[in-house]
Design brief:
The chain is α/β, with parallel strands linked by helices. The protein has two domains: 109 residues, Aspartate Aminotransferase, domain 1 (Alpha-Beta Complex), CATH 3.90.1150; 252 residues, Type I PLP-dependent aspartate aminotransferase-like (Major domain) (Aspartate Aminotransferase, domain 2), CATH 3.40.640.10. It is built from 13 helices and 15 strands. The chain has a seven-stranded mixed sheet with strand order 2-10-9-8-5-3-4, with helices on both faces. Strand 6 and strand 7 form a beta hairpin. It is globular. The chain starts with 6 loop residues before the first strand and ends in a 10-residue tail after the last helix.
Length: 383
């Protein structure tokens, strides 16, 4: 029997469940096969339940990475000269800013020190018209930035956007299906993600839900259309056909990933979203206690900013990036730093999706980190 590969505990891709793996490794169906159409249609329906979204919201699943989902949101909503606000909490907020600038947008960033998040008051100030400029068209924010482990509270930001007549777009790549996001009640307009994080699949799907209000903005834009592959108008009839269990074609979907998606979303919803959020919250709380006992300091500067999907941990005094290799020697893969300002000062541990249903995986991770540090293995609290 081949030796099991090291436990994958980075902030994505993640370990996947046996059922998801079985669905993914099935013989590939054609894109018009009845089982593919059923899996696609049921997945689109389940996405609204995972996103806690309105029935009127429009789900999109397209072959590609999380960056594609970000590009789709920007390209469909933003035209040259549009005023936008970016709530910057790390590397992926920087990426959103660059995408907006490439579209010709007028971008105002709301920033703070690494590990912190701007306050709602700072965001409210940025949303106010200045210098005779027009209103802000859209606010962009990263729910959990994978580079810092910082989690924002989307609810007040969505409310501020609506109060100022702006759309709200949230990058949920490292948050969706793990951190609470109530798209309908909060009045958010776009929530996007990718398949390889808390959704619990291999990489390869860009996923987003779009409010009817946001789609109307796209439908009524005054300039040329977005690139064809990014265009919601091109994709909408395809998604609607799949929901109606009818065959459709625009571009060949990632068929095996769609089979896996139906399985993965079904697993997430089996216990309800409240239980799924609670699983991630408990796992993160227990790991934080373990990290504290090992003398590891989080990058987020306040406890309420610490994500439930990953831990960004500063190296202790006298320890450097070689720790990551020593952790691997104990059978667990963790990730190095990503934020340019502190890249060599910290490492990251993912704990989302299937892993939070497996206490043994979390315990193995803590054990590997402790042994790599040459310290006693702390107990992980139960429950």
């Amino acid at each position: 029997m081949p030796e099991r590969p090291p436990l994958l505990m980075i902030p994505g891709p993640i370990e996947v469940s046996p059922a998801v793996l079985q669905a993914f490794t099935a013989p590939p169906p054609g894109h018009l096969a009845p089982r593919l159409i059923e899996a696609f249609g049921s997945s689109l329906e389940m996405m609204r339940r995972v996103w806690l979204a309105a029935d009127s919201s429009l789900p999109f699943v397209v072959a590609g990475a999380g960056t594609l989902a970000m590009e789709m949101a920007v390209a469909n909503l933003i035209e040259a000269g549009d005023r936008t606000v970016v709530v910057n909490t790390g590397y992926f907020s920087d990426r959103l800013t660059e995408m907006l600038r490439r579209c010709g947008a007028d971008v105002r960033e709301v920033t703070t020190e690494v590990g912190d998040a701007p306050s709602p008051e700072q965001v409210a100030e940025a949303l106010r018209p200045t210098g005779g400029g027009g209103p802000v068209k859209a606010l962009f924010a990263t729910h959990v930035d994978t580079s810092t482990g910082v989690r924002i509270d989307p609810e007040p930001l969505a409310a501020l956007a609506r109060e100022n007549g702006a759309l709200s777009v949230f990058d949920g790549v490292c948050a969706t299906a793990a951190e609470r996001f109530d798209m309908e009640d909060w009045g958010a307009d776009v929530y996007l993600t990718a398949s390889q994080k808390a959704i619990g699949l291999p990489p390869g799907l860009a996923m987003l839900l779009v409010s009817a209000r946001a789609f109307e903005v796209r439908a009524n834009r005054g300039s040329t259309a977005p690139p064809m592959y990014l265009d919601w108008v091109e994709w909408r009839p395809i998604m609607e056909a799949y929901e109606q269990r009818r065959p459709a074609y625009f571009s060949t979907p990632a068929t095996n990933l769609i089979l896996a998606l139906a399985t993965g979303l079904g697993e997430i919803l089996a216990g309800g979203m409240e239980e799924r959020f609670a699983l991630h919250q408990r796992a993160a709380r227990n790991l934080r206690e373990a990290w504290l006992s090992l003398g590891l300091t989080p990058v987020p500067v306040r406890p309420e900013l610490a994500a439930n999907t990953l831990s960004a941990l500063r190296f202790p005094a006298g320890v450097d990036g070689s720790l990551i290799g020593r952790i691997l020697e104990h059978g667990v893969v963790v990730a190095g730093g990503l934020h340019p300002a502190i890249r060599t000062e910290y490492f990251r541990v993912g704990h989302m999706g299937y892993a939070v249903t497996r206490p043994d995986m979390l315990e193995s991770t803590v054990r590997a980190v402790a042994r790599a540090l040459g310290r006693d293995v702390p107990a992980i609290p139960a429950g």
